Fold this protein.
Amino acid sequence: MAKRYETVIGLEVHVELATATKIFCGCSAKFGGAPNTHTCPVCTGMPGSLPVLNRQVVDYALALGMAANCRINQTCKFDRKNYFYPDNPQNYQISQLYLPICHDGFLEIRTASGKKKIRIHEMHMEEDAGKLIHDEWEDCSLVDYNRSGVPLVEIVSEPDMRNAEEVIAYLEKLRLICQYLGVSDCKLQEGSMRADVNLSVMEAGSGKLGTRTEMKNLNSFKAIARAIEGERERQIELLEEGKCVQQETRRWDDNKEISYAMRSKEDAKDYRYFPDPDLPPVVISGEWLARIKERQPELQEEKAERYEKDFGLSAYDASLLTQSRHLADLYEQTVSLLQQKEVAGAPKKAANWFIGETLRLLKDRGMETEDLHFTPGHLADLIVVCERGEVNNQTAKKVFGRIFDEDVEPVSYIEKNGLKTVVDTGVLESIVEKILASNPKTVEEYQSGKTKVLGFLVGQVMKEMKGKADPQTVNRLLMEKLQRGPSL
């Protein structure tokens, strides 16, 4: 009988904080910039330079720790993690080992199997390293220290995850919390959220953990899922062959869908941690904690519940609208404006435009919700115009496309481009008669019982009117004339 194996997964997630400046100096922490332009003696490790802690980093770490149900160490310290690598200018990294700022938290995730708590061992503050750029043409490596000293919070989970679905659910939950708090944009493609996967396999039911490996270079959720499956299969294959899994750090190549060994996995003792002599302990008062707690925003799950309760939305619609804080903010502003204009059913009408057209256009344009830049007032005005019957739904969607792309003011745009719905029944009647006269076979089919052809006739009238007719009025006029009999 073939052995059954269980996968055990823990994550080390690095979140780059959205501060204006770096953790220990005043250099810009903004992504990009010409190489080595966001640098100073502190973040390039010059002798005699001294670090000064950025208070905003502590605020962000506290907010994230509270949102993840962590306990707070009101006295925490920084340590030096010693290692040599070309992108590490000091030959050590300032981090937290002995007294991290947060510990013993959890996030609750939801998968097809139901709800599950993923425990968080700790969160600690640290500085990022620089970036090596390998030039294959010149056969050399260049270093950019712009990222050196950018503030990070590292979130270390317990090995509570058992498959890729749970891992992705955990990461998505963590990313949403960070974005709602405003502590990070969590863009994996820019490296502002990075996950290292610690994975081992063991015989199902044995309870004896296997040897773990750590996988790096994972810059998308899809890559993480593929890497988990690939490493699981690799380890099982080794065990089936009677070989041992080596504790090591591996690099995932997503193009080839394979991993390869980078180095043996280090333990804390290998880094010779000791307290940083240049940084005093961080003492967090009760008043400081109270200020952070008071500023905590409504998070995604709370917001979705409120949308269901106050706006009467379905759980599905509420989850879509709250998938991004920016999207939710735009939606709420639109609802508020519609309510001020006394539009009946404002929350549902606004939701239809965001879930239908906005998300469709985001997908078509390959954009993220954070890229939305249209004015909520313009969408609200378009909805009002639709409610008055001044434009039909087809035209409104075209106008919204211009609002989405260029943030045009809809009322003047509709007027300028002659897009108002034609409500003159005299004009519409003459067009209807013209279409009926041009399509005698279709008229005959309708009058013989094939009523589905009415849609074709409506389409012909709309085409003749360049989409500016009211479909309901066109339907009514066509049916009135068709029901008069062969002579029309």
Summary: The chain has three domains: 5-287, 298-416, 425-482. Residues 298-416 form one domain. The chain is about 40% helix and 20% strand. The mean pLDDT is 90.
